[in-house]
């Protein structure tokens, strides 16, 4: 029934793209509410469904609003993945690995990536006469912290893939969906050179070739993570 469909509140150029991808992989009926950034921020109307006004937001069929990508992805897989396709094989690719890699995307990769985002935007927005100074600070932070941290995490991810197509085995799992956003961001914005991590590079290309990914890009309203505008 249409009223029982989940509704995704999706924001352009944001992490909610990975939830839209997951919904397409699940091949379930859902409603999509597109929101567009206003001066780079989520629009005020997103606070109508949740007081924080952030994306993604998922309204469940019974009217509950779930936020945070990790929780939304877990809810969708637990609720709609009846065959266990996206839950790993239960041996090496079990719930512990899934939780560990999913949390790595936010708790560990997040801080150095966000620092790079902030400094990249700061350099762009700073008045031209002080921009060289801010650029020097950014270069020092990248050399002493964010660069080495991101390099260590991406080497770890490269090692974790091993000979698997996806982090959770032969098909994507929650870890793959959640990791897609930091990998997309770091690649598009030039925070890392993905060619230094050949297994991650192949995984990234493999994800982009999935029909569900192509559909989620078509249904969304933009996914530009370059931070150039």
From TrEMBL:
Family: Belongs to the GST superfamily.
PROSITE patterns: GST_CTER, GST_NTER
GST N-terminal domain span: 3-84
Protein name per the record: Glutathione S-transferase
GST C-terminal domain segment(s): 91-229
Organism: Fonsecaea erecta
Highest taxon of the lineage: Eukaryota
């Amino acid at each position: 029934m249409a009223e029982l469909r989940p509704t995704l509140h999706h924001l352009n150029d944001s992490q909610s793209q990975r939830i839209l991808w997951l919904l397409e992989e699940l091949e379930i009926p859902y409603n999509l509410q597109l929101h567009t950034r206003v001066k780079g921020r989520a629009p005020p109307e997103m606070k109508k469904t949740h007081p924080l006004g952030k994306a993604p937001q998922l309204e469940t069929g019974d009217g509950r609003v779930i936020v945070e990508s990790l929780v939304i992805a877990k809810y969708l897989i637990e609720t709609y993945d009846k065959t266990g396709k996206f839950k790993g094989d239960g041996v090496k690719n079990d719930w512990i690995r899934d939780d560990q890699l999913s949390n790595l995307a936010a708790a560990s990769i997040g801080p150095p990536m966000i620092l790079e985002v902030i400094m990249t935007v700061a350099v762009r927005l700073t008045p031209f006469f002080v921009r060289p100074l801010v650029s020097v600070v950014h270069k020092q932070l990248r050399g002493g912290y964010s660069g080495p941290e991101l390099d260590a995490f991406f080497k770890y991810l490269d090692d974790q893939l091993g000979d698997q197509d996806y982090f959770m085995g032969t098909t994507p799992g929650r870890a793959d969906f959640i990791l897609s956003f930091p990998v997309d961001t770091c690649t598009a914005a030039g925070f890392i050179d993905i060619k230094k991590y050949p297994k991650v590079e192949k995984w990234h290309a493999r994800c982009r070739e999935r029909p569900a990914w192509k559909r989620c890009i078509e249904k969304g309203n933009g996914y530009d993570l370059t931070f150039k505008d």
